[in-house]
Fold:
Amino acid sequence: MLPLHWYKALSLFLLISPHVLLAVLAVIFFKRRFYREFPCFFAYVLYEIAKFIPLFALYSVQGSTGKQYAYAFSVTLILSIALRFGVIDEVSKDLFREPQFLKVSARRLLQGVTGLLLVMGILFAVYAPGDNSARWYAGVFVVNRGAAMVQCGLLLALLLFSRFLGLSWRRPAFGIALGLGVLTSVDLATYALRAEFTSRAGAEFLNLLVTGTYLVCVSIWTGYSLAPEREPASIAVVPHDEVETWNKELERLVRQ
Structure:
């Protein structure tokens, strides 16, 4: 494992740098007017920047306890989950433009899954063992894991059906979904790994993995916001007279 001073330096870098890059992303979105097409994602970016300030203050203050940080993190996570579902809805609108049946079906499915996850989180918070604070944390993180599963499913749909649905990999919507998918996939993996790696060294490694992945995902969003979208190739329209000529030549070859 890294020496303590190197670990702290790397942790601070991976904690601060993604949010600095998020500020750059917000400026790019504002200048290129992407906030009109993805207002919920723009709000999500601004919220992630805003919530970092009090959380980092609690992290840095010597007198704050781990319980205080966990409570503040859980409270801020609730709105973050809601905004992520809004981002999913925006990307699904861009993905399932045509036909109308796919658009309506996808939105209804997402709404149903969202409601189911909320009910699961409430039930888990009410009936989970332990005191009220433990139930609160359990309910919040159950909903967070469920949201991560939905986002991973969205990424899988993009990868499998991007060509079938005519979705260009250069579109900002794909970059948004790709970044969220990578982020939530690592989150789901770390939930399982934390049960196996219970040592302090294992926990420190997983913390670095999560923050490093977050930096990679913000870099993906920034790169997609800067990259020009490739215009779809125009389909050449064959004149009617030329088609008739081809038909006559084909008939002549068949008769021979």
Q: What stands out?
A: The first helix runs from residue 4 to 31. DSSP finds eight helices and no strands in the chain. Residues 232-238 have pLDDT under 50 and may be disordered. The radius of gyration is 24 Å.
